[in-house]
Automatic annotation (TrEMBL):
Gene Ontology molecular function, alphabetical: DNA binding; DNA-binding transcription factor activity
Keyword vocabulary terms for this entry: DNA-binding, Transcription, Transcription regulation
Protein's UniProt keywords contain Transcription regulation: yes
Stored SUPFAM superfamilies: Periplasmic binding protein-like II, Winged helix' DNA-binding domain
Family to which the UniProt record says this protein belongs: Belongs to the LysR transcriptional regulatory family.
InterPro entries linked: HTH-type_LysR_regulators, LysR_HTH_N, LysR_subst-bd, WH-like_DNA-bd_sf, WH_DNA-bd_sf
Protein name: DNA-binding transcriptional regulator, LysR family
Source organism of this protein record: Paraburkholderia caballeronis
Domain HTH lysR-type: 35-92
Length: 345
């Protein structure tokens, strides 16, 4: 396959591309090629909306202007990028080859604008992140309160997320960073990881559950479980632990990746689950859920900040990361029913 030698942020890289992508890449690298901002926005909008009309509305162009932008981009690259049909508009294989890069370029251009604004003393711009519920419950309010004391005009986009769902957003630039449970031995080379804390896990059951006093994992073999089993989740960690220790895998009858739904099922059903021990610091949680006192030591998980290794963070992004780190380092025990604002002042 063809190889290309690139310098990315002054670091050399050798990139091997499939033959079908090489033609597109050569066109992009050609001095005669001039990718324009509105062309990339048009391509991304078509990919995400699947129709020219909806895409045109999104980028505030008329449909003829959007079509012209795509046609110019296709002529510049020498390959078809969009195919039109009765079902709408879809990217060709060539279009898909540059779609993710186009999103990343647009995100970096936006970050460049924000850097200039912040250097000029205008704290505008935006920061987007995904935060695991393990962190958002105890530290999110405190971190954001501290951040807004200094950068009140910066928009924050925070979504609940686990590492498996956040990686795509990190790769295409729609997420600046994620705070998640991470197996540090499996972090891909394109990412960097900053540990914030280590969480101890417990088997949890509603107060009054028939197995609430179980002394061993062996006593739980016939129980029904509710777990989030997505990669890098607490549930997946528990499943792997059971198998490594020679126990049968938990009998998961409900797979649940919604935090609010898992909370409701934890105290409103006879399903066993797994959660961080720190949740028991909350009176609200402790009144409804207990830690099953199994004698086997359960695993601990690393929680931290993961981001693209080659990303150039804005000042606002770096400051929000520092706010999370400070919140973790200084936060007192928490209660879901108590606001964190006063403590953060």
């Amino acid at each position: 396959m063809p190889e290309f030698f690139l310098a990315v942020y002054d670091r050399p890289h050798v990139v091997t591309l499939p033959a079908r992508c090489a033609r597109v890449f050569r066109s992009i690298l050609s001095p005669a090629t001039s990718l324009k901002h509105h062309q990339l926005r048009a391509l991304v909008a078509i990919a995400e909306h699947g129709s020219l009309r909806a895409a045109a509305r999104t980028v505030y162009l008329s449909q003829p202007a959007l079509t012209k932008a795509i046609r110019e981009l296709e002529q510049d690259l020498g390959v078809p990028l969009v195919v039109r049909s009765a079902r709408g508009a879809q990217l060709t294989s060539f279009g898909h080859a540059i779609y993710a890069r186009a999103k990343l370029i647009l995100a970096e251009m936006q970050h460049a604008r924000e850097d200039v604004l912040q250097l000029a003393g205008l704290d505008g711009g935006a920061v987007s992140c995904a935060v695991t519920p393990l962190v958002s419950l105890k530290y999110l309010a405190r971190a954001i309160h501290t951040f807004r004391l200094r950068m009140a005009n910066t928009r924050l986009a925070v979504q609940e997320g686990f590492l498996s769902s956040a990686l795509a957003g990190l790769r295409d630039g729609t997420l600046d960073f994620a705070i998640a449970i991470v197996d540090e031995t499996k972090v891909a080379g394109e990412f960097q990881f900053r540990r914030l804390l280590e969480a101890e896990l417990i088997v949890s059951a509603r107060r009054g559950h028939p197995l609430a006093d179980a002394q061993s994992i062996e006593d739980l073999q016939d129980a029904d479980w509710m777990l989030n089993t997505t990669p890098e989740s607490i549930g997946r960690v528990l499943q792997d632990y059971f198998l490594e220790r020679g126990f049968g895998a938990p009998r998961v009858v409900v797979e649940c990746s919604s935090f609010s739904a898992s909370f409701a099922l934890s105290y409103g059903s006879d399903l066993l689950s797994c959660c961080p021990k720190s949740f028991l610091e909350s009176d609200w949680f402790r009144e409804r859920v207990v830690a099953v006192p199994v004698r086997e030591p359960l695993p601990r998980v690393a929680v931290g900040i993961i981001s693209r290794r080659d990303a150039l963070n804005t000042a606002a992004c770096d400051y929000l990361i520092d706010c999370f780190a400070d919140a973790v380092a200084s936060a007192p025990p928490f209660d879901f029913t108590e606001p964190h604002v006063a403590a953060a002042r």
